Amino acid sequence: MKVLVYRKCSTCMKALKWLEVNQVVFDERPIKEENPSYEELKAWYEMSGLPLKKFFNTSGILYKQMNLKDKLKEMSEDEQLKLLATDGMLVKRPLVIGDGFVLTGFKEKEWEDKING
């Protein structure tokens, strides 16, 4: 399992603590320094079954500065994925890629269901 995090993000830190407490084995990847590629994002999006908007960090400074709330509606999925691949700070975190599932953000109940199965 892969977990993409930003260590200055309190939600990411809560998620990492939860993984530790639940003794979940995972590989941590810094989302800002190792931004997901277009190919990775496309594959994860397709595997997730989630709306693409769930992959955007809608509360992030960069998202707001770029006025993406309005712009995303006019962009194709491909354009949105390419945009996400430009900066890890645009991507919702933590982002978990497991065996057959993808989680965006940290909701304890959802994580329990998916990770502990």
TrEMBL record:
InterPro entries: Arsenate_reductase-like (IPR006660), Thioredoxin-like_sf (IPR036249), Tscrpt_reg_Spx/MgsR (IPR006504). It comes from the Bacteria. Pfam families: ArsC. PROSITE patterns: ARSC (PS51353). PANTHER family: ARSENATE REDUCTASE, PROTEIN YFFB. Belongs to the ArsC family. This is Arsenate reductase family protein. It comes from Coprococcus intestinihominis.
